[in-house]
Amino acid sequence: MSFIKLIVFVTFSLSFTFSNAHPVGFNFGWGAHHHHHHGGMSFGLSPQFYQFSCPQANDIVMSVLEKAIAKDIRLAASLLRLHFHDCFVQGCDASVLLDDSVTVASEKNGGPNKNSLRGFQVIDEIKAKLEQTCPHTVSCADIVALAARGSTVLSGGPNWELPLGRRDSKTASLRGSNKNIPPPNATIEGLLTFFKRQGLDDVDLVALSGAHTIGVAKCATFKQRLYNQNGNNQPDENLEKTFYFGLKTMCPKSGGDNNISPLDFGSPRMFDNTYYKLLLRGKGLLNSDEVLVTGNVRETHELVRTYAQDESLFFEQFALSMIKLGNLRPLTGFNGEVRKNCRRVN
Ligand code: HEM
Ligand SMILES: *[C@@H]1O[C@H](CO)[C@@H](O)[C@H](O)[C@H]1NC(C)=O
Fold first, then answer.
1. Which residue's alpha carbon is at the smallest distance from atom 18 of ligand 1?
2. Bigger pLDDT: 200 or 10?
3. pLDDT confidence of residue 191
4. Each residue of 43-56: pLDDT tens digit?
5. Bridge partners of residue 42, in order along the sequence
6. pLDDT confidence of 192, banded at 50, 70, 90?
7. Ligand 1 centroid to residue 81 C-alpha, Å
8. Does residue 19 carry a pLDDT above 50?
9. Superfamily name with CATH number, domain 188-324
């Protein structure tokens, strides 16, 4: 371990211990707990945020998730993705849940989201149950984060201590949803840039892309690879041949744009490291998946190899990167609000 890495590790461990020792969420959901960062007062997130104000929060989330996922297994994937699309636009503030209104141009109409994001009714159901048990306490942004973790766990993936205490935005950014979320045909350079803009690095990119171990994608999102990868009417040469022929029957040259294919056809319902094994064999579904290996960035290729070989290392890093994702620019303290209905501001 290099000296720098050691310092980072020790600093991380210390700040983690510190925030654990000072639970917020005592009394009103925001406590007197604050760190002095950047010279101003800020409220940190903490796993114990609802320890006294709503200790049943996670149990309620899990019981709704279990029923919903038993009926429609894809919801686990959809809810995991929802957290990503929330956090990449204005931070993890439930902006993605707001419907169109006089003051809100909904992110649900953004290019990456329209006819694609799912799971909003499950969030509504969780919110309704939480409002019965702990009125006006658990934010929609925390519900989305809890649902993403719960969906990972219920799919066989890792568990982690989830910092809580996010508050909900009073605004959304349709523009941000069109600008900040990487497209499926992104290059490796593009992906790294989109992630860097959020403060996430190459390790986060490769680990979080592992979420594509569950769920599906529409034909429209990978069609370019089958018929015209480089404007020369040729397929992506990195596609393994049998995989390519199978995809062509699922996804004809004209029509069929809403047909779906699993992102990890080896084990589409199981959160495991098969996704990375497939990438190494030219069987990644999206261009953004395959370029982690073929994009001529040695680090991302190496990381794919590492996670393909060692599932527990993937699980460990996925958890760490999910915590980083969940910590993106949260509203805390007196900022934002706790929405009563996740679809509209109070
Ligand atoms: C690295 C850049 C990424 C790109 C370009 C990307 C792109 C996409 C696309 C195009 C789809 C299919 C959407 C559709 O057909 O309707 C999809 C699905 C999905 N994405 Fe990503 N994604 C990325 C990263 C992530 C991250 C970081 C997560 C979560 C941590 C994630 C989780 C998912 C999941 C679980 C699905 C399946 C959703 C379902 O079945 O409903 N993705 N992604
Ligand atoms: C990605 O797809 C969009 C929309 O289909 C297209 O305009 C753009 O040129 C594509 N980008 C690349 C790098 O192929």
1. 217
2. 200
3. 98
4. 689 999 999 999 99
5. 35
6. very high
7. 6
8. no
9. Peroxidase, domain 2 (1.10.420.10)
115 Cα nearest atom in ligand 1: 16
Alpha-carbon gap, residue 123 to 134, rounded angstroms: 16
- CA-CA distance, 328 to 251, in Å (whole number)? 36
With a 6 Å cutoff on the Cβ, whether 63 touches ligand 2 is no
> Which residue's CA is the nearest one to ligand 1's atom 10?
184
Rounded Cα–Cα distance for residues 214 and 75 (Å)? 10
Check if 57-181 and 188-324 are the same fold. Answer: no
Which atom of ligand 1 lies at the shortest distance from residue 81's CA?
Answer: 32
Q: Kindly report, residue by residue over 125-162, the tens digit of the pLDDT.
A: 999 999 999 999 999 999 999 999 999 999 999 999 99
The token pair that represents 160 in the structure block: 């982690």
Mutate to test the pocket of ligand 2, among 114, 181, 185 (most ligand atoms within 8 A of CB): 185
Centroid of ligand 2 to alpha carbon of 286 (angstroms): 13
pLDDT exceeds cutoff 70 at 35: no
Q: Would you say 140 and 73 are in contact if contact means Cβ atoms under 8 Å apart?
A: no
The two three-digit tokens of residue 98, written as one number:
């707001």
Q: Domain 57-181, what fold?
A: Peroxidase; domain 1 (1.10.520)
What are phi and psi for residue 36, nearest 5 degrees? -105, 95
pTM greater than 0.85 (yes/no): yes
Binding annotation for substrate: 182
Residue 173 token pair: 């950014």
Which numbered ligand comes closest to the C-alpha of 229? 2
* Span from the CA of 311 to the centroid of ligand 2 (angstroms): 33
Residues near ligand 1 (Cβ within 6 A): 74, 77-78, 80-81, 84, 116, 118, 182-184, 186, 191, 208-209, 211-212, 214-218, 221, 263, 286, 288
pLDDT at 24 over 80: no
Report the run of H or E that residue 223 belongs to, with start and end: helix 223-227
Of 332, 229, 200, which Cα lies nearest the Cα of 287?
229
Catalytic residues: 85
Domain boundaries, the chain: 57-181, 188-324
